[in-house]
Amino acid sequence: MNTPAYGQTAGTQISQEQYDKIKNCTTDLSKKPTSVEYLTHFNCGHVSKDESGKTVRQFTLIVEENQKIPITYEGHIFDGWTFNGTIPGPTIRVTEGDLIRIRVINSNDNTRAHSIYTQPINFGKDNAFTMSGQPGGTISPGRSFTYEFIAGPYGVYPYYCHVEPMADHINRGLYGMMIIDPKDPRPQMTEMAMLLNGYDLDLDLEGPITLPPVAPVEGAQTNLPVNSSGNNNTITETNMSNLTHVSVPSNEEENANDESNSRKERVNEIYTVNGKAFDYMMNPIVLHTGEPYRVFVLNMLEFDPVNSVHVHGAMFDYYSAGTNKTSDYLTDIVTLSQGDRGIMEFTYAYPGTYMFHAHQTLFTDLGWMGLFDVRGNPVDISRTHPT
Ligand SMILES: [Cu+2]
Q1: How confident is the model over 104-132, as pLDDT tens digits?
Q2: How far is the CA of 139 from the centre of ligand 1 (A)?
Q3: How far is the CA of 215 from the centre of ligand 1 (A)?
Q4: Residue 299 contacts residue 336 (beta carbons within 8 Å)
Q5: Which residue in 188, 189, 187, 182 sits closest to 293, CA to CA?
Q6: If you measure from the C-alpha of residue 208 to the centroid of ligand 1, how many angstroms do you get, rounded to a whole number?
Q7: DSSP-assigned beta bridge partners for residue 100
Q8: Secondary structure letter of residue 321 according to DSSP
C-alpha cells in the first residue's frame, strides 16, 4: 500500500467523492455486515448537496425488537433489539461540516419507544436535547423521527437509544459508532472499527432502577428530622444522629431489605469486540509488517465500569476521543469507561501471530480476545513509526 497519499499538507483540497473513497465507504448501504465484515464496513450515507453546495448525508436506522442474534460460535442466540438488523448497528461515517439527517423508524411490530442520541445532536436546530418528552426523545412503535445536525467537532462518537431503562436498551443492542472525520484528512492508512460490548443474558432482571426505599426511623413521627425548636431547616447534632441511624441499618434490617428490596446485580456473561465472542480468534485479522493501521475503538459495555484494549507485539499511538490529530501517548493498553472511545495507530515490525484482548482476564476468557496475523519481512520500525 502507498502511504500516506492524502492529508499531508494543511489545506489539501480533495473532493467529497475522493475523500469517501479513501475512507473505504461502502457502496452497499443495505448490507447487514457480519461481525468480521463490520471491521471495515463504513456507511457514509446517501450523499447529496443542498442549495449552498453543502454535503448532505442521509441515513435510515430501523429499530427492530425480537431479533435472534448469534453472539458466539457455540450456539448462543441473543434476543436482541437492533438498528438495521445487527449488533452493533452500522458504523456511520461523515465529514466535519456535513449536514446529517438520520431518520429513525421504530417498527410497527415493536412494543417499546426508542430513539437515538449522540453528542453532536445537541447542536441540531430541532433537537436541542433528546430525552423523554422532547422531539425525537421517544419514538413510538410505528412512528419515525429525523434527527438533523451539522457534523462536528471531528472525533469518534457512540450513538445509542436514550429511552429508559437505558441499561436495557443498550444491553439489548441499540448502539453503534459514528466517526466524524476532519475536513483535512488524517494520513491515509488501512482503517478498522472495533466496538467493545457485552451481553447480560438474564433478561428477567430488566426494568427500571429506582432509589432504594428509606429505612424506617425508630420513633420518628415525620420523614424529616426536627430539632428542639421545631425548625427543620437547621441540622443539629441530634438530627445528625438520626440521619446516621437512617443510613446504617442493623445487620438484621439489612438482610430483610436485601430480600425484599435490593436489586440483583446485573452481570455480563459474554464479552466481544464487534458483537460475536472470539470472532477474530476464529478469523484472525491479516496485517502486514511496515504498514500503518488505524483502529477506531468505542466501549459500549454496560454493567462493568471499565473495559480495556491491550495489543501484543506493537505499541500504539492513542488519540482520546479522536478529537485531536496529535497522539496523546504511546502505549500498549488503553482503559475505557462506558461510552469512552478513541483512535489507535500502530505498525508491526515483525511477522507473527499476536493477540489483542481486554486486559481483564475474565472478559478475555468470556469472548473478548482476537488475533492479528502479521505477514511480511521484518522492518526497521523507527522508519515507519506513524508519528
Ligand atoms: Cu430503545
Answers
A1: 999 999 999 999 999 888 777 665 444 54
A2: 9
A3: 33
A4: yes
A5: 189
A6: 13
A7: 57, 149
A8: T
